[in-house]
Design goal:
Radius of gyration: 18 Å
Distance between the termini: 24 Å
Number of helices: 8
Number of strands: 7
Largest sheet: 7 strands, parallel
Order of helices and strands: EHEHEHEHEHEHHHE
Shape: globular
Length: 264
Amino acid sequence: MQIDLGGRTALVTGSTQGIGAAIATELARAGARVAVNGRSRESVDAALERMLAQQPGADFVPAPGDISTDAGAQQVLDAVGQADILINNLGIFGSRPALEIDDAEWRRYFELNVLTAVRMIRSCLPAMTDRGWGRILNIASDSAVAIPAEMIQYGTSKTALLAVSRGFAKAAAGTGVCVNSVIAGPTHTGGVRDFVYELVDRDLPWGEAQRAFMRQYRPQSLLQRLIEPEEIAHMVVYLSSPFASATTGAAVRVDGGYIDSIVP
């Protein structure tokens, strides 16, 4: 299967590092014009330098801006122009005992992990439906289904994101626009590396620390290792393509078999 996204413009929020950067790079590899988003122009420029080293000649567009605000979101949209593919990847996570999560932290997680996606969908979906084609993907998490005891604020926000995806898929019914979520499993990113070392012995070498983390905190994983960001990106590229025209309103798992269920 040869995926060609030539002529399509994709916006990937929170794409200066980790899963977002991998998604942006792989979409560009498939031929898309890709807008790279981060809060500052400096972080975006640094990310573009790294991505162009991996994918020379790719058509990347700098799109700095804080999409947690209306003004910042509009700044990003102005830089992008028409978006055919929207990947809502921006999100935060962290561990905290459930009874120590105060109202401010609950609001912060909901605003950054859920409302940013809603804001961007609300801005991009009408034009997609007018054109009769579009792809919107919300990057969720296994934590949306298997709520981790050490970060229920994160898990709850990702559960909400699954509902957001299904709801907007219904709003786009019959228009040629597909709206889905991608349930990413435990993934090897810089942020997750720090998170792992919050929970296991910091003196352990990374290979041992990763295995200890999976044994103690993610024993359900059938993969028995952290997923690489490119493995998430490959699914995103497929779902962004014309080949995924019959997949909408779905929660597609790239979780390494972590969620113990025979259905999504």
